[in-house]
Amino acid sequence: MTPEYAMKGQFSEKSNVFSFGVLTLEIAWKLWSEGNISELIDPMISSDLSCHREMLRCYHVGLLCVQNFVKDRPTMMVVASMLNSEIENFLHQNNHLSLMRKLCWITHSYKQAK
Predict the structure, then answer these.
(1) For the chain, how far is it from start to end, CA to CA, in angstroms?
(2) How many alpha carbons fall within 13 Å on the CB side of residue 19?
């Protein structure tokens, strides 16, 4: 559930972006916490180092999608472009700290829910 919906009952065009980010991060977190993070990558291509960069790209996009403020989230069209490598360098230096805080919050929430 998006923060804006939980707090104010507002639905926005970026609510689906938030859901996509949550789903992406939940899958990665579940596999990582079970010690199966390598299952995210097809074994046929896992030796290719570029696929690991692509996996990190997916994490970063997922983190961008779950930002608290609607204005800070990308649109689904931008998400698709980032995942297709059409947009490079989408993580700016000043975003890293807030994104890492968000990941810590998600991790803490997930552990509490168990």
Answers:
(1) 18
(2) 9
Give dist(CA 33, CA 36) in Å, integer.
8
pLDDT (tens digit per residue) in 38-92? 777 777 777 777 777 788 888 888 988 998 888 889 999 999 988 887 776 665 5
CA distances from 15 to 63, 66, 68, 112 (A): 14, 9, 11, 24
Task: Please count the helices (runs of H) and the strands (runs of E) in the chain.
Answer: 5, 0
Report the number of distinct structural domains present in the chain: 1
Domain that holds residue 37: 3-113
